[in-house]
Amino acid sequence: MALEWVILTYIVGAEAIALLLVTMPGLKRLRKGIIAAARSCLQPLLTTIPFCLFLLLDIYWKYENMPKCEGAVCSAAEHTKHSKSIMKSQRNFVLVLAAPLLYWLLYSATNMLVQVEKLNLQVEQLKQHHSD
User: Fold this and answer.
1) pLDDT tens, 41-100?
2) Considering the chain, what is the average pLDDT of its residues?
């Protein structure tokens, strides 16, 4: 199961980097290429949504079937192992929530920038039409 979490971590990282590049000011010359690259990545990244649902079910199943470590029955080593397992599940839960959130933000940002570009093109055409 560790490979799935590594893949999700890379996906979240790629989405975060793409979102950062798309929204970064001062990249006027590269903006069209960055937006085109981000939009071409959106469809393959959509497959992360069912993948995240599967991993969310995995987290839930592991949490429900986790042995309980309570009181004097639990040694220090078992308590440490139990705590690490809980923290790992929480980290994985944050990854599962971050992937669809970043996907939605990337989709919204690229869609908005494409609309802004279209509107700027229309404004330029109107300016040329009125100057003639």
Assistant:
1) 988 888 899 999 999 998 899 888 877 777 677 788 888 888 888 898 899 999 999 999
2) 89
What residues contact 18, with CB distance under 8 A and at least 6 apart? Answer: 37, 38, 41, 106
Biggest alpha carbon distance in the chain? 88
The residue whose two tokens read 């809980």 is 86
Block residue for tokens 């429900």? 64
Domain ranges of the chain: 2-131
CA distance 125 to 129: 6
b/e sequence 66-95, b meaning 16+ C-beta within 10 Å: eeebeeeeeeeeeeeebeeeeeebeebeeb
